[in-house]
Amino acid sequence: MIRWRRGEVVRIRREWPGAVELDVTTEDGEARALAYPALVGRPEPGDVVLLNTTALAMGLGTGGYAMVVAVPDRLPQDPQGPGHLVKARYTPLQATVLGADEQGSPFHEVLRDADSVDGMPVIVADLHSALPAILCGLYGPNPPGPGKTAEEPGEERARPVRVAYVMLDGGALPAWFSMSCARLRETGWLCGVVTAGQSFGGDVEVVTPHTGLLAARHVLEADVAIVTQGPGNLGGGTRWGFSGVSAGEAVNAAAVLGGRPVAALRVSEGDLRERHIGVSHHSLTAYGRVALAPAQIAVPVLPGDFGRRVAEQSRPLAARHELVEVPVDGLYEALLGSPVRLSTMGRGLDEDLAYFLASAAAGRHAASLLS
Description:
Blueprint: E1 4-16, E2 19-26, E3 29-35, H1 37-40, E4 48-52, H2 54-58, E5 66-70, E6 85-87, E7 95-97, H3 108-112, E8 121-124, H4 130-139, E9 163-168, H5 179-186, E10 192-195, E11 204-205, H6 209-218, E12 224-229, H7 246-256, E13 260-264, E14 267-268, E15 278-279, H8 281-290, E16 296-301, H9 304-314, E17 322-327, H10 331-336, E18 343-344, E19 347-348, H11 353-369
Parallel strand pairs: 3-5, 8-12, 8-13, 9-10, 9-12, 10-11, 13-16, 16-17
Antiparallel strand pairs: 1-2, 1-4, 2-3, 4-5, 6-7, 14-15, 18-19
């Protein structure tokens, strides 16, 4: 189940909030490794490290690192401060965090009886790679500047729209893995990250997607929430065997809390797998079967035969949801302004433009709900 290796840190390649990327040597040769300092301490060149090389050996794209499990000769200090919420429970790396919804949290009183997100638009998507594209469509030609939303909850707002990201636990569990999250937070495109379920490492930790949405609204004071799984996607090529079914469950959570669910379609013209060409079967299952509450589904108005295919494939979703046609004019230019690299399954903006336009269309529609 786990491929263990002992390695030595050769150099630090780069780092971003919550994560350090390393070059290490093992008996198999040199490899890239990733460490989360909050869990294992900060490795330095020359340190001996224990590694989990399973994802590396399997050739996984998103998670293809050797993961640092411990720096055995230099263990980190014991954690200090409050926090009794355990995540990655009963694994060797279970960690305690301060949950916003636990007793002892400064936000417990706020969330204890909270039962509504007050009509907040909640944009739901399958893949983590949709997050920056949704934001491009939401902000359009007037994105926030660096740091403009980094003020603490309760301080005067520096701009009209605050957007929080609620990360589900279907992909990567540590939010620190996402360079996109770190950069979007830094540039002010996100006012905060909420990690729900077994995921952890966000600005706010919560137990469920429901309290994640409530925390986005009442702790981070968001005007809009975006919900996706973390980086990565688990799929077995079957109708039900994929982690993106959580998108349908997120629609239900948003609706039961009095939000306005907006569903982003997973659309592709560049994926070579037939089940993902046009509207992915992931969207058709998650929204058509799992989501029991109605949502507004943003259907991008794409040109030509491919656009007609997307419209036709979307039509069965109208049995439960409201299909909203969203023009995509100007969205390519908005996507070019993304502060992070746009990539899905290794394909960039021009290699799978339809995917990013469909995500941006959901952001554009959500923006229209705020006016």
